[in-house]
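step: validate -> pass
step: tokenize input -> pass
step: predict -> running
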Amino acid sequence: MLKAYYRLTKPGIIYGNLVSAVAGFLLASRGHVDLGLFAAMVAGTALVIASGCVLNNYTDRDVDQKMARTRQRALVCGTISGFSALAYGTVLGVLGFAALVLFTNPLTVLVGAIGFVDYVVFYAIAKRLGPAGTIVGSISGATPLVAGYVAVTDRIDAGAVLLFLIMVIWQMPHFYAIAIFRLKDYAAAGLPVLPVKKGARAAKISIIAYIGAYIVAATALTAFGYTGYTYALVMAGVGLAWLHKALGGLAAKDDAVWARKLFGFSLIVLLTFCAMIAADTWLP
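step: predict -> pass
step: emit ->
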């Protein structure tokens, strides 16, 4: 039963978002890390994300039962009741926001709240209405990175805006790739993601456009003085490699195979980005 409650928090999403939150914190710290603030930011952010994921599992029960990938989730199978999930998610949220309120700053709390409400409310609604739901959902995915950054700076500056844009843009080709190789699942669930509504080719073209925008946004951190030239060169190289793989999709014989490979490379891009901004203080 404990394992079921653990899985209800979607651990993969928690850990992935914590990587970006830590990277944002280290970028803003410039080598001077406040360990107490760091611990509070990590703990509070993890709990808030866990709460959002539990509540998302509750709101997505109808969709999850129609998809092969999710029909074994605890709320679909009845392993955990809806009431228990709501109580569990609420407790996690209260603890998470309490940590942020008590030990960080109001701006970090606000960024966390925006991400939480976007994921639990707006994304849950928007993804059922049309392809724009992916963009709505990308807002919540970008907030942990910004939360880590503003926990240190306590202000919204050009760096915070760029970090937000970078993460929003990165998520679009990442999720379109998922939607392509899980096309049957999304169609069965009645979720109108772009590949379902307009076909895989339209999604491929959008992927190419977003990756181009990602390269511009990522290297803009250096143009605005927030990162060094080593970061810019590495991210430009990784971004161009990602773009090359995306362009190959236009002639792919098996869309699902190509999309899985592109999805895998998008994770490499994200990890490289997080590692580079975290270590930027020590790089030329």
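step: describe -> Residues 8 and 179 are 22 Å apart (CA to CA).
step: cleanup -> pass
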